[in-house]
Amino acid sequence: MSRDTSETGTIYLVGAGPGHPGLITRLGHQLLQDCDAVVYDDLAPYELVAELPPNIVRYYVGKRAGRHSQPQKETNSLLISLAEKGLNVVRLKGGDPFIFGRGGEEVTRLKEAGVPFRIVPGVTAVTAVAAGAGIPLTDRRDAAWLLMATGHEAASASLPVPWEEIAALRGGTVVIYMGVGALPEIVKRLISGGAAPDTHAAVVVSGYTGAQRIVTAELADLPRSCAEQDVQPPALVILGDVVKRMDGVGWMQPGVLAGRRILITRPYEASAEICGILRKYGAEPLPLPTIEIRPFEDVPGWDGFERSSGRHGWIVFTSRAGVQHFLDGLSRRGHDLRSLHDLEIAAVGPGTAGALWERGLKAGLVPTVATVERLAEELTAEKNLRGAVVVRVRGDLSDDTIEKAVASKGAGIVRLTVYRTMTPEWEPHWVENVKEYPPDYITFTSGSTVDGFVKILGRGEALSVAARSKVVSIGPVTTKVIEDYGMEVAAEAALHTQEGVVKAILLLGRPVTPV
Question: What is the pTM of this model?
Answer without folding.
Answer: 0.83
